[in-house]
Amino acid sequence: MSPTLQTPSSSIRRWLVVFTLALAALGLAGCGAMQAQNPSGSLKPVNAVAMAPDARVMLAGADVVAYFTEGRHRQGSPGLRSEYEGVVFHFASAEHKAMFDAEPTRYLPQFGGYCTNGIVYGIPWGGDADTWLMIEGKLYIFGGQASKDAFELDVPGNLALAETYWREEIQGRNSFMRRAHRLVFKVPHYQTGEQLAKAVAEARARNP
Predict the structure, then answer these.
(1) Degrees, nearest 5: CA angle 186-171-132
(2) Element (H or E) spanning 178, and its range?
């Protein structure tokens, strides 16, 4: 009698997909991106990039203090840098650097600087320094205007979801693995970009 071949369960197959996606993400992004986003300190993971000679620079060098003092995105200078928990920050002025050094946690972008609307779906991905929102004295970054518009459909509800997923699934964990996991095992309230764009258009039609 020939042996019976066992078919992997649906759960196992899905985990294999997650593992494959994670490997693909590593291959596409490279080890540099993996290291940049996953420091060993308390800020893991972060939306950072390698900018020689530094292994990880938050928000590609955007001045995080400028959002608070000037109400705008402003690029920092490599000549004005500070390091906090293994992550480098650039500043546009010596004054901003001094303010950060005195109270760094006050100026940190929420959710590691990733797109806040992505975190609503448990996905630490993207985040453009020039698309942002200040809520109750805290800085939130978005992956573009469309992501920000979708988030603003329900700020309290979406913020609560983002805080839950960040606390329970993402904070302190590997960004690539969490991203791959939630791209396969989607959250119950997941919506595609097209669905979100439609919801935004409908909301604007109701409230022109």
Answers:
(1) 80
(2) helix 175-184
- Distance CA(26)–CA(45), nearest Å, equals 15
Stated pTM of the model:
0.86
Helix (H) or strand (E) holding 157: helix 155-165
Residue type, 32: G
Instruction: Spell out a b/e string for 75-98, using b for 16 or more CB atoms within 10 Å of the CB, else e.
Output: ebeeebbbebebbbbbbbbeebbe
Query: What whole-number distance in Å separates Cα of residue 14 and Cα of residue 57?
Result: 34
Assess contact for 59 and 127: CB atoms under 8 A: yes
Minimal CA–CA distance to 94: which of 70, 67, 76, 68? Answer: 76
What type of residue sits at position 68?
F
Other C-beta atoms lying within 10 Å of the C-beta of residue 17: 14
**Burial classification of residue 151, based on how many CB atoms lie within 10 Å of its CB (0-12 exposed, 13-18 middle, 19 or more buried):** buried
Per-residue pLDDT of the chain (208 residues; tens, 9 = 90+): 333 344 446 555 555 555 555 555 444 445 678 889 999 999 999 999 999 999 999 999 999 999 999 999 999 999 999 999 999 999 999 999 999 999 999 999 999 999 999 999 999 999 999 999 999 999 999 999 999 999 999 999 999 999 999 999 999 999 999 999 999 999 999 999 999 999 999 999 998 8
> What's the one-letter identity of residue 149?
D
Which residue, 52, 167, 126, 25, is CA-closest to 34? Answer: 25
